[in-house]
Automatic annotation (TrEMBL):
Keywords: Signal
Species per Swiss-Prot/TrEMBL record: Cloacibacterium normanense
Name of the protein: YceI-like domain protein
Native organism taxonomy: Bacteria, Pseudomonadati, Bacteroidota, Flavobacteriia, Flavobacteriales
Top-level lineage group: Bacteria
Range of residues in the leader sequence: 1-21
Amino acid sequence: MKTLSTVLKTAVLLLSLNVSAQEKTSYVSINGTTNVNTFKCVNNSFHQLVPLSLNHSSNNKFAETSINLIVKDFDCKNRIMTNDFRDIIHAEKYPFLNITFLSLDKKDHNTYKAYVQVKMMNKVKKYFVDLTLKDSVLVGNKTLRFSEFDIVPPKKFGGMVSVKDDLNLAVSLKVKP
């Protein structure tokens, strides 16, 4: 009886590990710093698999894949910061932030170089981004600047707290295996 109980407990443990490994979700985060602290605003409201074609050829290109993010879905884990973030990028006037993957080239076994277009507040910029594939999730980040999108980094409390111009755009995308 003890052996059956041990086997069942082990099976339940293995199944729970397998389920948690499959629950990885896609997200985009915008991370920044102030002269006082850091902030991280995350949008993980899109749960669909990103339809990237990842085959094993050396030049893996794919048709444009777009991710339309609703700006109001970004959460900074602080109500005031979240509202400030939405105000800074004019969420009412420009409700979407769009990331379009224009190409994806395989560099080696699990690394890729993507050419992406970021559209924020009707400004379009293109960047190369290095991505790593692990467990059907592409992960990468790119440093952007508020000023590239004609945004003046905000200041609060009479200039005592000022946001730095540099931002880190991080992506984690669950892809179809």
